[in-house]
TrEMBL record, chain A:
<dbReference type="InterPro" id="IPR036683">
    <property type="entry name" value="CO_DH_flav_C_dom_sf"/>
</dbReference>
<keyword id="KW-0560">Oxidoreductase</keyword>
<feature type="domain" description="FAD-binding PCMH-type">
    <location>
        <begin position="1"/>
        <end position="170"/>
    </location>
</feature>
<dbReference type="Pfam" id="PF03450">
    <property type="entry name" value="CO_deh_flav_C"/>
</dbReference>
<keyword id="KW-0274">FAD</keyword>
<dbReference type="InterPro" id="IPR002346">
    <property type="entry name" value="Mopterin_DH_FAD-bd"/>
</dbReference>
<dbReference type="InterPro" id="IPR016169">
    <property type="entry name" value="FAD-bd_PCMH_sub2"/>
</dbReference>
<dbReference type="InterPro" id="IPR016166">
    <property type="entry name" value="FAD-bd_PCMH"/>
</dbReference>
<protein>
    <submittedName>
        <fullName>FAD binding domain-containing protein</fullName>
    </submittedName>
</protein>
UniProtKB/TrEMBL annotation, chain B:
<dbReference type="InterPro" id="IPR036884">
    <property type="entry name" value="2Fe-2S-bd_dom_sf"/>
</dbReference>
<dbReference type="InterPro" id="IPR012675">
    <property type="entry name" value="Beta-grasp_dom_sf"/>
</dbReference>
<dbReference type="Pfam" id="PF00111">
    <property type="entry name" value="Fer2"/>
</dbReference>
<keyword id="KW-0479">Metal-binding</keyword>
<dbReference type="InterPro" id="IPR036010">
    <property type="entry name" value="2Fe-2S_ferredoxin-like_sf"/>
</dbReference>
<dbReference type="InterPro" id="IPR001041">
    <property type="entry name" value="2Fe-2S_ferredoxin-type"/>
</dbReference>
<dbReference type="InterPro" id="IPR006058">
    <property type="entry name" value="2Fe2S_fd_BS"/>
</dbReference>
<protein>
    <submittedName>
        <fullName>(2Fe-2S)-binding protein</fullName>
    </submittedName>
</protein>
<keyword id="KW-0001">2Fe-2S</keyword>
Amino acid sequence: MEFLRPTTWAEALAAKADQPDAVPLQGGTDVMVEINFSVRRPPALLDLTAVPELATWSRDGDRYRIGAAVPYSTIIAELGGALPGLAQAARTVGSPQIRNRGSVGGNLGAASPAGDSHPPLLAAGAAVEVESRERGLRTIPAEEFYLGVKRSALLPDELIKAVRVERAAGPQYFAKVGTRNAMVIAVCSFAVALHPGERRVGTGLGSAAPTPRRALEAEEFLAAELDWSAPLEPALLARFGELCASAAAPIDDVRGTADYRRHAIAVLARRTLTWAWQDHLERRAA
Amino acid sequence: MRVTFTVNGREETAEDVWEGESLLYVLRERLGLPGSKNACEQGECGSCTVYLDDAPVCACLVAAGQAQGRRVRTVEGLAERGLDPVQEAFVESGAVQCGFCTPGLVVQAHDLLERVERPSDAEIREALAGNLCRCTGYEKILDAVKLAAERKAAAR
Ligand SMILES: Cc1cc2nc3c(=O)[nH]c(=O)nc-3n(C[C@H](O)[C@H](O)[C@H](O)COP(=O)(O)OP(=O)(O)OC[C@H]3O[C@@H](n4cnc5c(N)ncnc54)[C@H](O)[C@@H]3O)c2cc1C
Ligand code: FES
Ligand code: FES
């Protein structure tokens, strides 16, 4: 095995172009488990933690750009106000030690349907910046990034550079079902983001289908039916839950059955929308 | 490959490191620092917790090569001028039974007390959520962290 340690982004892209089967390594919280258990023996590890710009975030007005290797602990400490959905999801990842290392870029690279970053990125309408030496930079909307279980739109010679997320224009919530409050892979998860300016509600489902996905019908339903100045109607809330559950295509596994997951998605959808709506009405009243 | 980094204030070099090797393996097997324990090698138990620069991490999930040029502080490094108050409090509170989880808990609790002077029970539980103990039932560990917090605050 080789250990490649570029110190600039250009060197990193060159390394990946020359050796597309090199496995990128950031926090190692997915990769090192596989190496320790001999699940993976790649010809090379491409350590990206010495590339400074991947470890920082920046903003340009309301547009936030989070470097691929920024750890969850930084997102929690510094971005909770601007990106509440993503920060809430970050708080539920693993343990403090895992959050000090694990990153959104690594979560995207792993592209697990259970990854906690994905639902809030989908709900917020985030985009993933990827780059290769040969073809340069391209920006992939989050909803086009996930292609299958642990498969993404990232090509073999590309690296994830950053995620781009707009500052939350309205309330955002993330909720996750698991057996305890720490160290759990989601049985299922759900994120909601209100976009009051566009009279739109964004959604994201996790661990409920082969890929993280939006509940598009549920979003369209709310766009058509929601009265943005009134309390939520119980019938509307119930229908929203049903439509979110029907967007799921879950499986039975050790963590839960498909039926349970569909049920739980409906509950989480109603619950998070209720929280978000309460905040929304309070902000209107203020 | 060769990896050079600072461990507990001293620069150390490990030779013939396998590229997929963890920082935990290098510390224990190559640098003679068996304080950090190897229990799960998958980030689940926290018994390998060490500081990497200023953040506590699972050494089993850090590739040795990623530590190149960085600072590592292990449980041994907390005791360089006598036991740290956290270590003393663990002993006095009966928070140690078999001791396998102790080094990781000590480092993690040390970090908490560096950041929060008087943590609440909820904060302590949250900070230690990634450290498993199969013996104590955790109550004595909570007592130890609170005792260490009091002593540290009194010494300030
Ligand atoms: C104990 C434990 C608990 C966990 N709990 C959770 C949890 O609650 N929720 C959750 O979502 N996840 C959890 N995880 C999984 C993991 O922590 C996350 O997926 C994390 O986001 C991975 O980030 P990383 O930087 O450590 O990735 P790494 O392990 O470094 O990489 C992960 C994948 O992404 C690829 N990759 C990394 N960086 C790039 C890049 N810049 N460009 C292209 N590809 C790249 C790697 O090659 C690899 O395939 C847990 C893991 C452990 C060990
Ligand atoms: S040995 Fe590293 S977390 Fe268990
Ligand atoms: S004292 Fe035995 S595992 Fe904690």
